[in-house]
Amino acid sequence: MLSGAPAEVDAVTSEPLRALRWEVATLRPYLEADPETRIVFQRNLTHDLAGKLRRLGEDYLRQSP
Length: 65
Fold this sequence. Notes:
This protein has helices spanning about 25-35, 35-65. It contains 2 helices and no strands.
């Protein structure tokens, strides 16, 4: 969604879960029309990305000599 490039993802879960998937063409107009939902969506996306970057940095530091 951020880059416009398709994401290819494989995932394995240890427990049953429910997942949602939206087409960008459907999600984008909805988020543009509902600012409160857009803010929550962006906040969660930012939190997720920050966690991934933090873990990546920690992994890098562990591997550095």
